[in-house]
User: What shape does this take?
Amino acid sequence: MTRHHVKCCAWILVITLATLAACAQSAPAADAPKTDVRWTDTRQVGPFIFHATFSLEAYKRLFAELPELQHELTRTLGVPPAKDPIYVYLFSDEDEYRVYKDRHFPRVPFRPALYILDGGSPGVYTYRKPDLEIDVRHECTHALLHAALPVVPLWLDEGLAKYFEVPASQRAFDHPYFDDLKWTWSLRLGMVRTMESLEECEDLTEMDAADYRFAWAWVHFMLHGPEAAHRALVGYLACNQKYAPAGKLSARVAEALPNPTEQMIQHFQHWHE
Assistant: This one.
């Protein structure tokens, strides 16, 4: 398949404090800037409200493209826009970020970037570093999905976030995973994570690097592969929006097209041709 024949589909760390016992009760809500931090720069971009302890002037390109993230999720997945603002808290360095996280969310494991649903209020937290823009897009994807859907399976949540974490121009052909030699050999040797195996992951600690790559791969396949696979994904998410029993996405995809795992492998083996 060439770039001119791409199917343009009409296409966590999620830590929910409610699942972390008393953490949600002790931590302040994410619906306003925390008073114990001096925020240097504040600005609103689409549904996102940024608070930073440093100047955000260097990130104008990110702010210019970020509103399109919501539009793409609605266009390609059929999920409605977020109704409430999503707050993004950015810190000058890792030390400042760690101190803040340990003070407000002591029971949340450290990650370089976090999406935290605290008492129903979504917040994204990370710090200034070379891959800040990737982290912001990744965690904001989680936030937008959870603003629209009551339930998102862990593997699908991470697969969608990995897909949308890069700029729009890189998503179809130029994601860094395409250059991963381990990924290439996994396909050649048949060492593939099926959708069914990914559905067994219920905690981030159960997902390794290969799981992340294949979660992304299945998302890419459903967005740029057979139209039947895309319809199965959109239909699955539509059921979730209505709180209707959605079953397993793997069952829907298997019903929509034969041998989905083999078709996914073929999709990537011929994608750049």
Observations:
- The first strand starts at residue 14 and ends at 16.
- Strands lie at 14-16, 41-45, 48-52, 86-91, 113-118, 121-127.
- The CA atoms of residues 52 and 174 lie 30 Å apart.
- Residues 162-269 form one domain.
